[in-house]
Amino acid sequence: MDLGIAGRTAIVCAASKGLGKATAMSLAKNGVNLVINARTKDALEAAAAEMRKTGVAVAAVAADVTTDAGREALLWACPNPDILINNAGGPPPGDFRDWGREHWLAAVEANMLTPILLTKAVIDGMVARKFGRVVNITSGAVKAPIDVLGLSNGARSGLTGFIAGLARNPAIAAANVTVNNVLPGAFDTDRFRGVIANQAKKTGKSPDALFAERMKTVPAGRPGLPDEFGELCAFVCSAQAGYLTGQNLLIDGGAYPGTF
Questions:
Q1: Are 175 and 127 in contact (CB under 8 A)?
Q2: What pTM was estimated for this model as a whole?
Q3: 71, 47 in Cβ contact below 8 A?
Q4: What is the CA radius of gyration of the chain?
Q5: 184 forms bridges with which residues in the sheet?
Q6: Tens-digit pLDDT profile for residues 91-121
Q7: How far are the Cα atoms of 42, 44, 191 from residue 60, in angstroms, in the given order?
Q8: CA-to-CA distance for 74 and 156, rounded, in angstroms?
Q9: Are the C-beta atoms of 32 and 56 separated by less than 8 Å?
Q10: H/E/C letters for each residue in 149-170?
């Protein structure tokens, strides 16, 4: 399918690895020029080199976008994107009794306020041009909270509530500007493996045993592949998805047990 977005430009955050990188690569394969961001310069430049092989233009901005300076650097490189992919590594797992105010502030800064501020910076331009796609990569834990991911559960749920209202603003929705969240379940990424490793240390079980236990909760019987996630995000950014907005799109191999 031709997604109708060739020649457009996207900002993709946390694009040096994992789901962010997969999303950027799927957009590149559909002809979207990229401005990609991550904090680690070497990994980001390596990812950019891979994406350039698709023939699109790729600029890499190594910066911490949870800071004012980092966001300014990213938006200076791409002040008028057609597509914005908000993404950030989740806060560490643990017991809420061990988290102080500074842990909560860091989680809210990275997983709620930063995507809101980036969206604020670009959405009026999207409205003026009558095309825009904002996709927030959040977590399946928004619908089915995971006990050890309390920081993520809380911060990402705040973003979800904000987006629910923003996406339904008539001045935005009627201008062919959509705002959606994509909620990954268990995907084979460094983040997922890190959570498993953390649980192994605390429980004394082997990572392999814990991985097997987790997969028993996934009807598909396996973790998702980053490429599968990237392709879904690319479709949400497509010309054909102009009537899709304000949604939380869960991609988790059937793990969520609810009807709605």
A1: yes
A2: 0.94
A3: no
A4: 18
A5: 251
A6: 888 889 989 999 999 999 999 999 999 999 9
A7: 10, 7, 22
A8: 22
A9: yes
A10: HHHHHHHHHHHHHHHHHHCCCH
